[in-house]
Amino acid sequence: MDENALRAAGIDYDAALARFMGKQAIYEKYLRKLPEDAHMDAAWAALEQQDEAELLEQVHAIKGLTGTLGITGLFEQSAAIVALLRAGTREELQEKMTSLKQEWDRVCETIRQA
């Protein structure tokens, strides 16, 4: 994978690689799986169905996954959405979810091309 392209996309490659104890092949294996992960689609379905419990579960999973993989922007955005949901605040939820999805798509495209 093109480490520079990943870094340019906001992936903290070095920190994530350290979490994987320096095992580059294993880290990149999991990173390559992100574009096929179903959590974002499930989160959108929950948002459309106004199922806040399911939305919280899916966005929390995205937060954990992106945190582990060092995808800082997605991690921060998903953490903000989790905080909104836990506070019972729906204001800005649609906007924040749209932004999260756009960033997800951008990062996934970078991973596919890297």
Strand content: under 5%
Strand segment count: 0
Q: Which CATH first-tier class would you pick? A: Mainly Alpha
Termini separation: 5 Å
Global shape: elongated
Domain HPt: 39-108
Organism: Roseburia hominis (strain DSM 16839 / JCM 17582 / NCIMB 14029 / A2-183)
Protein name: HPt domain-containing protein
Question: Keywords, please?
Answer:
single chain, 114 residues, mainly alpha, Four Helix Bundle (Hemerythrin (Met), subunit A), 7 helices, elongated, Sig_transdc_His_kin_Hpt_dom, HPT_dom_sf, HPt domain-containing protein
Give the secondary structure arrangement, pairings included.
Elements: H1 3-8, H2 13-19, H3 24-33, H4 39-48, H5 52-69, H6 72-86, H7 93-113
What can you see in these coordinates?
The chain is built from 7 helices and no strands. By secondary structure, it is an all-alpha fold. The chain has one domain (3-113): Four Helix Bundle (Hemerythrin (Met), subunit A), CATH 1.20.120. Helix 4 (39-48) runs antiparallel to helix 5, helix 5 runs antiparallel to helix 6 and helix 6 (72-86) packs antiparallel against helix 7.
Question: How would you sum up this structure in a few lines?
Answer:
The chain is mainly alpha-helical and 114 residues long. Helices cover 76% and strands 0% of the residues.
